[in-house]
Design brief:
Blueprint (H helix, E strand, L loop, with lengths): L1 E9 L2 E9 L2 E4 L10 E4 L39 E2 L2 H15 L3 E6 L3 E6 L7 E6 L6 E7 L15 H7 L1 H6 L5 H12 L5 H36 L10
Antiparallel strand pairs: 1-2, 3-4, 5-9, 6-7, 7-8, 8-9
Helix pairs in contact: 2-5, 4-5
């Protein structure tokens, strides 16, 4: 049994996988003890999908799972697993807002997601790939150091992100003033928040809250039917 190193190059990053496989020695018509030369038979080529590593290759490895409770203040490490591409993208967006940098996703498809800083001379980037036979994504390469200067204008800060971040505050005070919320969000994120963003964020949060209330109210009809069937003697008909 001989160990073979298989190298795979993705975005100028070399990934090396160590594989144990048997080398079959077959005679040829060249020199040897019987006038023949040894030949390595590698007809059964090892299947290696570019940028993706099978679970079988690292069976004993235990990778950290991303904690969704830290979505607004994420910490990234190589090998970290996200349950979905959406979760990773939201965490990367939160990182941009937290560090006051602008990032984009030049590669974004069903199999991979590549995030990088938009600053020309900044090397910050994360390469996240889908795991084999799973819906989860895993960080395969990471440069977590920004060399660019922070900015107060962060395009990754959206009304949807604001509505998610401040959802509990809107839930406790739905009449919150737009101007007050705009100033509060600007102070907390240390980024520029426009009045339009604040208005849209409030509308999205209130719509989500009212949607929850409507779904709970709709369940009353089911409860009403159960009372009619199981407790007819105790059911009160106000129209009778």
């Amino acid at each position: 049994m001989t160990k073979i190193d298989l190298a795979n190059i993705v975005n100028n990053t070399i990934y090396v996988t160590h594989v144990d496989r048997e080398l079959h020695i077959a005679p040829t018509e060249s020199s040897g003890s019987d006038g023949e030369k040894d030949h390595v038979d590698l007809e059964n080529e090892f299947d290696f999908d570019e940028g993706r590593v099978s679970d079988e290759e690292n069976e004993d490895e235990v990778y950290p799972m991303f904690n969704p409770n830290t979505s607004f203040k994420p910490t990234f490490v190589i090998g970290q697993i996200f349950v979905s591409k959406k979760e990773f993208k939201f965490a990367a967006q939160s990182h941009a807002i937290k560090c006051r940098r602008n990032i984009n996703f030049p590669k974004n498809d069903d199999m991979r997601l590549y995030a990088k800083c938009k600053a020309i001379n900044c090397d910050w980037n994360i390469h996240c790939l889908k795991r084999v036979d799973e819906q989860s994504f895993q960080i395969r390469s990471l440069n977590d150091n920004h060399t660019c200067a922070p900015s107060h204008k962060v395009k990754n800060l959206t009304s949807t992100w604001l509505s998610e971040n401040f959802f509990q505050k809107f839930q406790s005070d739905g009449r919150r003033n737009i101007t007050g919320f705009m100033l509060d969000a600007s102070h907390k994120t240390r980024c520029q928040v426009t009045r339009q963003q604040a208005y849209k964020a409030k509308q999205k949060a209130l719509k989500k809250i009212e949607g929850d209330s409507e779904s709970r109210y709709a369940k009353l009809w089911g409860y009403d039917e159960e009372l009619r069937k199981n407790k007819p003697r105790f059911y009160y008909y106000p129209w009778d």
